Amino acid sequence: MSLTGKHILSSDLFDRDELERLFELADLLVPVARGEQVTRVLEGAVMASLFFEASTRTRLSCESAFLRLGGAVTSTTGTGVTSISKGESLADTARVVGGYCDLVVMRHPEVQSIHDFAGATNVPVVNAGNGAGEHPTQALLDMFTLHREFDRLGKSMDGRRIALVGDLLHGRTVHSLMKLLTRYEGLTIACVSPAELGMPAELLELAAARGHQVEVSDKPAIALREADVVYATRLQTERFADKPVPYSDDFRIDRALVERVCTADAVIMHPLPRDSRSGSNDLATDLNSDPRLAIFRQTDNGIPTRMALFASVLGVVDEIRSSLRTASWYRPAFTGPDDAPFYRR
User: Fold this and answer.
1) Of the candidates 104, 10, 123, 122, the residue with the CA atom closest to the CA atom of residue 51
2) Could you tell me which CATH class the domain 136-296 is placed in?
3) pTM of the model
4) According to the model, what pLDDT value does residue 239 have?
């Protein structure tokens, strides 16, 4: 299946063959993402970056990915600085912006808005998060991270135990990730959350229908045992600010819990941002020096993954390999002081 010219609104779009093709391309583009090589296959192309909701990683990652491919970026953030604040419809905005660019990356706090926007333009639209709906590019980079982590560990993706922990009701990253996980074989997927924040029933049913074992639990200390992957998520308080939910310190993933229940080669992930404030019961910072913690490898993987997606959507994949050349500027051997030795360039 060709992705050229397609809107990327949901993880439903990707089957296993398409995932493997994208990951092969992303592997090729890792040196470009790291600033070690250069390509200009999108020189002259323009991406419109429309973020009507706060973002750090996704916005900068998408913009950096397009720039690394040689393209240009024009952007706006928030609704207050756009004509939407003057009453303009999303459909009118879509038609106008589509005339300015070759690809749109958009985030919006409402689930339906991305679909309305995409329906009003023929320019490809990439969903960078639509409320509590989906976040397909995050799921792609998460799966690419697993592809690289398991390759390093000599493991196959099939047959693994995956623990998804936290706010699974409002967490759009886990919604998209769940759909991609089900493209593999023989997984055990443990969905670990307070009962009020459980994974939507239709996603549990999808996983079961595709032959996976699904467990629902509110006890992380039990569900994380023997997990190959622990994927923690933040409590999405912006989605239900006035509805208190019991969220005990059982959901704090810290060094003590990891040492007690996780295997020596578990992969610990989080889509970020994690809430590092006291009492947040999120992924703890005392794991920062643990090589099992893959969260910054995740963020770095966002660049090659999104590069592969943009190149596919704009139909320049076949030009990449022959366009690569060595970069001449300085890059450090590794970015963070706590990066695991195997991750250094």
Assistant:
1) 104
2) alpha beta
3) 0.94
4) 66
